[in-house]
Amino acid sequence: MGQQLFTIVQDGGVTTPRGFKAGGLHCGLKKTDRNDLGVIVCEVPAAAAAVYTTNLFQAAPLQVTRESLNEGRTLRAMLVNSGNANACTGAQGEADAREMQARMAEALGVSKNEVAVASTGVIGVLLKMDKVNAGIERLPSKLRDDAEGGEQFCKAILTTDLVKKVSCVSVTIDGQQVTIAGAAKGSGMIHPNMATMLGFVTTDAAIGSELLQEALREVTNLSFNMITVDGDTSTNDMLVAMASGLAGNRELTRSHPDYEAFFAGLRHVCQELAKMIARDGEGATKLIETSVVGAASDEAAQAIAKTIIGSSLVKSAVYGADANWGRIIAAVGRAGVPVNVNTVDIRLGDILVLEQSSPIAFDEDVALAYLKGDTIAIHVDLNMGSGSAVAWGCDLTYDYVRINAAYRS
Amino acid sequence: MGQQLFTIVQDGGVTTPRGFKAGGLHCGLKKTDRNDLGVIVCEVPAAAAAVYTTNLFQAAPLQVTRESLNEGRTLRAMLVNSGNANACTGAQGEADAREMQARMAEALGVSKNEVAVASTGVIGVLLKMDKVNAGIERLPSKLRDDAEGGEQFCKAILTTDLVKKVSCVSVTIDGQQVTIAGAAKGSGMIHPNMATMLGFVTTDAAIGSELLQEALREVTNLSFNMITVDGDTSTNDMLVAMASGLAGNRELTRSHPDYEAFFAGLRHVCQELAKMIARDGEGATKLIETSVVGAASDEAAQAIAKTIIGSSLVKSAVYGADANWGRIIAAVGRAGVPVNVNTVDIRLGDILVLEQSSPIAFDEDVALAYLKGDTIAIHVDLNMGSGSAVAWGCDLTYDYVRINAAYRS
């Protein structure tokens, strides 16, 4: 996986790459006094890229951000509110998203197309714009280029999340140290397809927006698009990346000798964030990692890995530490891709439970002890070809139901 | 829906149609003394039809039954065990299914290809054939042609089901009273695709096996294939129909003036059974009925109805009596079919919550009172075309998780 190509930056965050400041505050959209408005600002125009939800009902801020990025390929700021998704809010919702963008641009002294806007929270309720506008006025005074600035931003984007989600690595390009950082939020309505819940990537690499867009798309397919919490694809999923170029490397191209290191670093950051989202899935107590090998193609392996990770029965069994591999094979069989029904091997961690599609006697106590851990690996080998994929999810618990039975109330 | 074409037979069951006996007993596959082996027997060779799961890993009894029905198109008996699915059990599992078939045939004095076999329960464990064989020996003495026989059979096919699932109607064909009855089981791993959990239909109509097969297939697509409990398609889904022909009507054809009545009756029986399965979904407290109209096609409407009914977030919200229509519109938007995002209406029962894709203010107290009922109707009008569909499901509750966290233990 190229781990040697990058170094993990402990305690790094979105303000670690050169040129970035961040901040957050409570403007009044959340009922408690938790942060609900945050911004990341770059001191120079940053090359920018974004991927969006495939849900047909895209929230207003996504439409506004997409439109702006189509006009110019640089960003100076990413503004986010939590507590209200500004989705299915009609013409007023779109006007509100545009107002957020324009006011933030004015407060920062940049052009409005250089401000991306994002929202997360309840669907179908108009934003309280008096509170949002007052918050935007105060935001510039909160900007810091240190860890505290990144921390306040990360708090501002959470909803039902229990923990902040940040990852940071450094890579060497042209002998220069380049940093790549990301922050994300997401806990429920997680079944990203071509995009994710809210994710924000900052880097000081010099890279054009076109190549950044391609890299972001490829990495998304190996990270955020391979997680599921509940099979529900949000109206608000968006991942935005900004590259300040202040690291001093020659501009990256696909043939640049260090492009592979940049890509590996970006992939690591996004996969870490994706796993953090899966582990912090609503009500979750465990991270489930499903790897599928020996498939006819990578696409087939992806379909199977995501079907397993999405199975309510598999998720419930993992919660109960029940080595119920029958539910895994049933998921393999309904994934909609070709499978040789006689050659499937299944392992739970290192424990072989099915070989060539026949049950293998295993020590139930050993399996129970393994399944009581907080990270559960499910390995499926189809023994058909060379296709492979990894997907991440979480267990299904009482708390998932409790949280979602009363989210809006 | 043609309700006037048939009459509901109160307290009718699989032994109500002329020519059928049924019975059940406890042979020892279930840990408690509940029935776990049952059979329906016809006194004459009955025209037969069946549909099977689309899961690639089909259980051994399905393979055996399919093979037998391919050789001859009549059945004298349908034998079922619960407590063990006999799925993913390799060559020994297939031999066991054949032995069950052969011993039941011998005990009844019929040929083995005239016995369908079915199993439901845990996957990947070999059947205790000594117990099954002893049970088969005793089964003929348990056969009765009254309601008690049907009752004992129905009990024998249940696993995590809480209630028996039976439906019976009568229709008039050629002036003769024809009865159609069905029994089913299913509570978890319910997301049938071209077939269902175990379902058994008996009728005394005179109808050839070919037309019966066509009717069964068409009706399945309007009933069992439109329910979901948890999105997991079982390895054992099977629906079998037997027609004794003892009602005395002229053999049905598609052009027979009363074929429509027979079809309407069969559809009613299967839809009632499907709704009973959805309402009795593992842990469920409510039946959810989703109707989609105004779609570009019936197929598009089906995709949307099943996406809504399968959404964990929608299911959790219904459990919590939360009028969270944002989750419904999010499901509409990710169903993978074309939708005009500006023209969607949504109603919860009679309460309009979204019109032309814009939120409508509604009385939360009235909505809460409605959502606290035990049957929740979700109506979606896409205002695009004339496609429509109805799907059924249930809420997602703490008990679903409890049941499935420890099913195998």
Automatic annotation (TrEMBL), chains A, B:
| The protein's annotated pathway | Amino-acid biosynthesis; L-arginine biosynthesis; N(2)-acetyl-L-ornithine from L-glutamate: step 1/4; Amino-acid biosynthesis; L-arginine biosynthesis; L-ornithine and N-acetyl-L-glutamate from L-glutamate and N(2)-acetyl-L-ornithine (cyclic): step 1/1
As its record notes, the protein acts as a catalyst of: L-glutamate + acetyl-CoA = N-acetyl-L-glutamate + CoA + H(+); N(2)-acetyl-L-ornithine + L-glutamate = N-acetyl-L-glutamate + L-ornithine
Record's subcellular location: Cytoplasm
Active-site residues from the entry: T196
Q: Where is this site: Cleavage?
A: A195, T196
Q: What is its EC number?
A: 2.3.1.35, 2.3.1.1
Annotated family: Belongs to the ArgJ family.
Entry protein name = Arginine biosynthesis bifunctional protein ArgJ
- Which species is the source of this protein? Cohnella yongneupensis
